[in-house]
């Protein structure tokens, strides 16, 4: 029915050999030296970090696949633009350029700059979420949920059931289930719904996209009930690629046309420019003067004056160019095509991964990878620790460690236990991905050696950032011994 993961490609280049190679449409102009410390050092490093990959130091890491946030490669044009920055507290020409670019791409009148995505979430939640209100969404993101809850709201996930199926051929696992949305409107009444949030390129379920058609239907239903639609566009670049390549009715639309149609269907767009636009910053966009005026006060209170919003002026220049580059098919295809390659290679070797391939990274299914571990021992956290140990590759736990305890202090286990291996845009080469695939396959062969983790230091809020864990047994030494037996003195 649907094309297999990774087979769809915007690339016009076919290989004579028939091999499916994601060909780069850019060249490397600036490089950064990498080191790969020996496994004994990696063991010490992961122990010092409390088995939390957030606490590792860069000097101990070979491939940093923690995140795509703020670490995408910039283009020569972005770097060049940064030299032209018009730095002033108010009235900066640089800001006017960004505002014009936003109006051009999104076709909306008002733009508010913020220092990063969660700052936009703080402001949107403070303005629209009241105690007792409900925010239906396809799926939560850590910081989006935290801000809604902090303001007294409740998150209701109304993702299609298929969205939580780890292996699937559904091309749009990030879609909202319209029946679930209608049922929530019936139960709570439209007035109790603060807004409906649609997250594009749905992060925590594996960077899975929604279709344009789904957004049209969500928008129609919300408008019929006078409910605002808020669109988290942080991962828009990937979702644009998937709409273009997987949604037959959109294959002849340009990325600009798809983006314009999206903006016409929503009331507020916000984004992290650490992802969208390959810079560092964020923004809120709307056509509603009323919404703009309400949010504007909070920007000056929390972020900075309206012509920089906590961003450096140089980053604003880079963002303006980066947003324009997001309208380039070569640019948006690179990430999803590299991820598609990794997912295909791992699937071929029998390693459990999320399918179809999504955006932002390749996601290992720790629940099946380590099916001997109960969720109480944090399989995704254990897999993150084990993979770093055997490869120097740093991934991010996206499972129960990333959840927080409920009001009574009980664990809330996540629907999925994932190890996310982010593939920042235009950063890695194909041989580096092959290395990661190789070590992951070795670890899969030796998965029985991997044991669980338990918290030894557990912060109350966003515990995954600073929490420390210890292995439940001395499984890490056994893994090091097996690595040495198989690889000799190789790194
Ligand atoms: C990263 C991200 C955010 C938060 O952005 P920051 O810049 O990290 O604060 C919000 N929503 C989604 C979907 C994201 O991926």
Structure characterization notes:
This protein is an alpha/beta fold and 491 residues long. It has two domains: 17-68 and 329-487, Alpha-Beta Complex (Aspartate Aminotransferase, domain 1); 76-325, 3-Layer(aba) Sandwich (Aspartate Aminotransferase, domain 2). It is 40% helix and 12% strand. The chain has 17 helices and 14 strands. The protein has helices spanning 39-48, 76-82, 93-106, 117-128, 142-150, 178-188, 212-224, 236-246, 255-265, 289-302, 313-325, 329-348, 366-369, 379-391, 430-445, 463-466, 475-487, and strands at residues 63-64, 110-114, 134-137, 154-157, 196-199, 229-232, 268-272, 282-286, 361-365, 393-394, 396-398, 418-422, 453-457, 468-471. The strands form five sheets. A five-stranded mixed beta sheet has the order 2-8-7-6-5, with helices on both faces. A three-stranded antiparallel beta sheet has the order 9-12-11. A two-stranded parallel sheet has the order 1-10. β5 (196-199), α7 (212-224) and β6 (229-232) form a beta-alpha-beta unit. α3 runs parallel beside α11 (313-325) and α7 (212-224) runs parallel beside α9. The longest helix is centred in the last third of the chain and has 20 residues, at 329-348. It is globular, with a radius of gyration of 22 Å. Residues 1-9 have low confidence and may be disordered. Residues 69, 116-118, 141, 143-144, 199, 203, 232, 234-235, 272, 274-275, 282 line the site of pyridoxal-5'-phosphate. Its cofactor is pyridoxal 5'-phosphate.
